[in-house]
Amino acid sequence: MDKNMLKDTAVSYVKEAADYIREQMKYTYGIDTKEDKDDLVTDVDRNVEKFFKDKISKNFSEHRLMGEEGSFENIKDLDGVVWILDPIDGTINFVHMGTNFAISVGIFEDGVPLIGVIYDVMNRELFVSVKGEGAYLNDQRLPLLKERPLDEALVSFNTGWVLKDKDLQSVVEQVRGTRSYGVAAIEIAYVAAGRLDAYISKKLAPWDIAGGCALLNEVGGVATNYRGEKLTFLDVDTLFAANPSIYKQIEKELKSR
Ligand code: 2AM
Ligand code: CA
Ligand code: CA
Ligand code: CA
User: Fold this and answer.
1) CA nearest ligand 1 atom 2, residue
2) Does the pLDDT at position 85 exceed 90?
3) What is the mean pLDDT of the chain?
4) All structural domains of the chain with their residue ranges
5) What are phi and psi of 138, to 5 degrees?
6) DSSP reduced 3-state for 89
7) Class for the domain spanning 150-255
């Protein structure tokens, strides 16, 4: 299948799932915890994943799905075409705020990001990329990221990590400002859109970052783990995603990583 047709299909699934999520928000839905009391999952997360699972197995029987809510267990490699899905990224925001959450899809071919789709469901912002054809925000092409000095940068990280990391504290002192949205997919998409200049996280799964990293590739952004190593998209890892000039400037501060 042509990659643009695959992109259009992925966008149509994401839009349909987003309509479902907005509808469910009118009612009460079940909320459970997973590994600890702050690790939330709702019936809506599970149903969105099931929706993708059914669509992909029916229409793309040769493709595989790696999703947060269970459809990851059999995925041990990225051979062929793999859809890496976070049905709701930012579940805590979904439950507490009713906004600032996203559906994130990265479609990989033999380990390489082919398509990225991140949809900010309540703000109706759609970030889409196709390998070699650029990235778009609601049909507006996103420009390549430009050089910027660190003292004009806006960076995002979880404040809990900053408390424990002297190097990040030094970054905080030098940048123009810090933000923390609690939704990795949107934070990476914001780096791709030039709204943020860097996003650092100490613990993310492939589904948190797959769609965002596909977008970043198309605007000249950089994404590695915190130690500067290549991402595998198969295991939980750290993340350092940034505008390329800001990446280099922050890297100099990360002396004890
Ligand atoms: P989630 O909402 O899909 O769980 C919050 O800072 C960001 O980190 C969100 O993108 C959230 O995704 C992700 N996240 C939350 N808990 C996590 C965990 N235990 N491991 C990895 N990522 C997590
Ligand atoms: Ca989760
Ligand atoms: Ca997530
Ligand atoms: Ca999730």
Assistant:
1) 90
2) yes
3) 97
4) 3-141, 150-255
5) 45, 50
6) strand
7) alpha beta
